Amino acid sequence: MEDTVTPAAALAETDTSAILRGGLPDRYLTPADIAEIFEVPKETVYQWRRKRIGPPGFRVGKHVRYDPADVRAYVTRRKAADVAA
To answer: In terms of pLDDT, which residue wins out, 19 or 62?
Structure first.
């Protein structure tokens, strides 16, 4: 039986920056991206920002953006908090 490699798996094997980013895109993320990643409504992302409980974002003019490294750090902190609870 022949091993089949999916295009995404082949890209992950050759794209070392994808490994460093933990699978996140190599660009600043939008609130819609965050909503898609966490599978929540976009309004939830805006509520997180207002309450300062979600991943930290920043403004570029009137637009909110998220640094993928900050999102990865947020996920790591949330995982550690869940393990400690």
So the answer is: 62
The tokens for 57 are 């974002």
Which has the closest alpha carbon to 57: 81, 36, 29, 77? 29
Q: Quick one: residue 30, left, alpha or beta (phi over 0 = left, psi -120 to 50 = alpha)?
A: beta
> What does the pLDDT average to over 28-44?
96
What is the signed CA dihedral for 42, 45, 49, 53, rounded to 10 degrees? 160
Find out whether 28 and 67 touch, Cβ atoms under 8 Å. Answer: yes
Can you give the pTM of this predicted structure? 0.71
Contact yes or no for 74/34 (Cβ under 8 A): no
DSSP string, 67-84: -HHHHHHHHHHHHHHHHH
Q: Which residues pair with 58 in a beta bridge?
A: 65
Q: What is the pLDDT of residues 21-32, one digit of tens each?
A: 567 778 999 999
